[in-house]
DNA sequence: GCGTCCGTACTCGGATAATCTCTGTCCGAGTTGCCGAGG
DNA sequence: CCTCGGCAACTCGGACAGAGATTATCCGAGTACGGACGC
């Protein structure tokens, strides 16, 4: 089991948008070029973030994606939740109500909940809690200033619009 | 993303073995019947647990699987680790060293570690820590006595040989 | 009657398909900005 | 010179293949038990 690569891509893209600081939309193709990613595939993930209210999407020329709210209010938990959905990691299939105990299924479900599912749920809560403690703003602040400036110059070339080299 | 169903199966089987309390091996087919699972597939997962030292496997008649150590010393973290491996959940591909920053790759890697990977790693540590706090013995104790007895009678039908189980 | 040998049945073990999610790619719908024509 | 209309380019958006992992299944190698044979 492993988290999809899209989580990493989306998180890095959010950090880039946060570090740029501009509210102007950035096309997915530009964000993909920053880290050498597949543009259409990254677009798919960013679209999911937009559908969940983390990004705003704009069509047409000078369109793209932009943060929907301040980077301080976007956590890693939000990113994972937007991409992976809300009920992941462990899905209890209630096998304890099958086989030998099929006749007591209703009685078992009415009693104590499945201990394994409870333990998994609690561990998952700890995981999400830890992720919720880290915001995109925190991560953006961890970027070295030199690289951040290079980012800005690449994403928003103040010179003139329309040139995109390499 | 989602944990494989085998984790649930393996955990329940371990709890069953723990609750039985007997050191006599139990065939995978019997364990599968307890919860109505696919016997060969469950066997595959139990084999993995055996390969990681959680279970002992015995061939031939009266063979099967048995706990390799006391249930108090087997945690849910051990189960997940045995089945999923040690380095899961989030795998940082270091995309921050690609694209624009490919020429600075060595310099970046020598500097601060990737903040996103660090956050993910910390969250994963919290997850595993929570899982490590729950033992198979804890889960076995949570089973209702009535169902536990039915389990023992099914797995070790003493009628056959009048054998006594602990 | 007792010990030994063999046959049988039962178990794990690994190799082999089917299905689903993730990964990657493509082209179409919609929108914005630009340019030229007209007033 | 200013305004309006059409054109073109650029963007997101959803639909379409390929790869990998999970799910599921089967048959073979090995082993312990049970019975039969020989002493």
Question: What is the topological layout?
Answer:
The structure is a homodimer of 166-residue chains.
Chain A: H1 5-20, H2 28-35, H3 39-51, E1 55-58, E2 64-67, H4 76-84, H5 105-110, H6 115-132, H7 136-141, H8 145-155
Antiparallel strand pairs in A: 1-2
Helix pairs in contact in A: 1-3, 1-4, 2-3
The structure holds a DNA duplex (39 and 39 nucleotides).
Question: How would you describe what is shown here?
Answer:
Two copies of one chain form a homodimer. By secondary structure, chain A is mostly helical. Chain A has eight helices and two strands, in the order αααββααααα. The first copy, chain A, has a two-stranded antiparallel sheet. In chain A, strand 1 (55-58) and strand 2 (64-67) form a beta hairpin. In chain A, helix 1 packs across helix 3 (39-51) and helix 2 (28-35) crosses helix 3 (39-51). Mean pLDDT of chain A is 91; it is low at 159-166. The interface between A and B is large, with 59 and 58 residues. The first copy, chain A, binds a DNA duplex (39 and 39 nucleotides) through helix 3.
Describe the structure concisely for a colleague.
Chain A has helices at residues 5-20, 28-35, 39-51, 76-84, 105-110, 115-132, 136-141, 145-155; strands at residues 55-58, 64-67. Chain A is mainly alpha-helical and 166 residues long.
């Amino acid at each position: 089991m492993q988290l999809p690569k899209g989580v990493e891509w989306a998180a890095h893209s959010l950090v880039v948008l946060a570090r740029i600081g501009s509210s102007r939309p950035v096309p997915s193709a530009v964000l993909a070029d920053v880290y050498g990613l597949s543009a259409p595939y990254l677009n798919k993930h960013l679209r999911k973030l937009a559908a969940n209210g983390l990004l705003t999407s704009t069509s047409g020329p000078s369109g793209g994606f932009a943060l929907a709210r301040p980077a301080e209010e976007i956590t890693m938990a939000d990113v994972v939740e937007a991409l992976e959905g809300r009920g992941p990691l462990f899905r209890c299939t209630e096998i304890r109500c099958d086989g030998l105990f099929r006749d007591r299924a209703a009685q078992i479900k009415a009693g104590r909940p499945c201990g394994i599912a409870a333990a998994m749920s609690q561990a998952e809560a700890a995981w999400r809690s830890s992720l919720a403690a880290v915001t995109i703003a925190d991560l953006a602040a961890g970027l070295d200033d030199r690289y951040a400036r290079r980012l800005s110059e690449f994403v928003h070339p103040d010179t003139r619009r329309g040139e995109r080299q390499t």
